C-alpha cells in the first residue's frame, strides 16, 4: 500500500490499489478521521487533504466537530447481534425484514448522521421524508416507460421502519454510544380505529361448508377429487378447532387424540399444537371429530402431493407421523369463495384460511363461552379477543346491565289524596 505524509505527519495519504483514488487520514480530538479525496493525482489529492484537515480544525475550534459512532456502524452491529441472538427463536424471514428496512430506507437517510444526532426530531423528519413524493418526471420511468403513480407507504410500513430504527438505537445505548434512546413515537398519531378481522357469519359459514361438500362430491375435474375431499375436511376442522393455518400445516396424526369430554359426554379432539406460540394444547368442538376420522381413513398418494398435480398412483393410509394436510388448497379455496361471493366481507376485507379461526372465536363468544377459556384454548390473550372480536359482536352487550332505568319520584300533586282523620292531617 503506497503512503505519503503531509503537514508534519498530521495527515497521511494512501491508496489501496495502484492507479486507484487517494484516501486521507488524520487523528483529531481522540478519534480517527478518514475520507476519500476522489483524486488519482497525488498533487491534487494533497490539496484536497490539506483543505479537509484545515476544515476539521476550524470545526474543532468552533465546537462544530462532533465525534462518535455513525448510524451505519450501529446498524451493522445490530444486524450482527440480532441474527446471532434470535437464531432459532425468530424466523429467517423476520430477521431479513429488519435488514431490508435498514438497507432500503433507514441507511440512505441516516447514513451520514451520528447516533448522538438522531433524536425525536430526526425521526419525524424521516416520517415526512417517507410520506413525501420523490422528485421525478411522472411521465417517464427509468427505462423510458410510463412510470407508475407514486403511492405513499402504509402507516404500518412506516411503523415497522421506526421499530427497526428504535432497535438500532437501543443497540447503540447498550454499547454506551448514546446516553438514552430518544422518544420515537408519532406526535400526531390519533388512536387507531379498531376494526374486526374478517370472519364468516353463521349463515356464511353454512354456505361455505355446503359449497365445499358439493365440490367434494362433484369436483370440476375428477382427478382432483382427493384434494376437494381434503379441503372440505380442512374447513370443518379449522372452524371447529380455532387453530392457526401454520399450526394445522405442522399437525401430525400422532398429535391428535379422540377423547370423551367429561363435561358434555361428547367425543372431542385433544390436540397438541406446535406453532407461533410454541407448544400448546387445544380441545376441539365435537364437529371436528368426524372430519378427523375421515382424514385418518382416507388413502393418500405416496410421495410428493401438490395442488396442481393429479392425486393418482400408489395410495396408502396415513401413518402416525404423516401430516393431516400435506398439501395446500389456496387456489381451490379462493375459487370456491369467489364463486359463492364469500371472498370479501362487508368491509371489503379479503377472507383467507385464517378467517376460519376468526369464525371459531366469534362462534364461541356468540354461544356465551368464557372469554378467558376461549383465549386459553386458542393460545392468545383476552386483550386481543376483546379488541378484535368481542368489540363487534352484538351478543356481547348485556342489556340487563345497559338498559337500567332509575325509578323516578312522584310529584306532590300526583300523590294520592290523604284520608280524613289520618295522622298527617
Written overview of the protein:
This protein has 3 domains: 2-61; 71-134 and 151-174, DNA polymerase, domain 1, CATH 1.10.150; 202-399, Intergrase catalytic core (hpI Integrase, Chain A), CATH 1.10.443.10. Helix content is 41%, strand content 11%. The chain is built from 14 helices and 9 strands. The strands form 3 sheets. A 4-stranded antiparallel β-sheet has the order 1-2-3-4, with helices on one face. A 3-stranded antiparallel β-sheet has the order 5-6-7. Strand 5 (256-260) and strand 6 form a beta hairpin. It is extended. The mean pLDDT is 86.
List keywords for this structure.
hpI Integrase, Chain A; 4-stranded antiparallel beta sheet; 3 domains; 425 residues; alpha+beta; DNA polymerase, domain 1; 14 helices; single chain
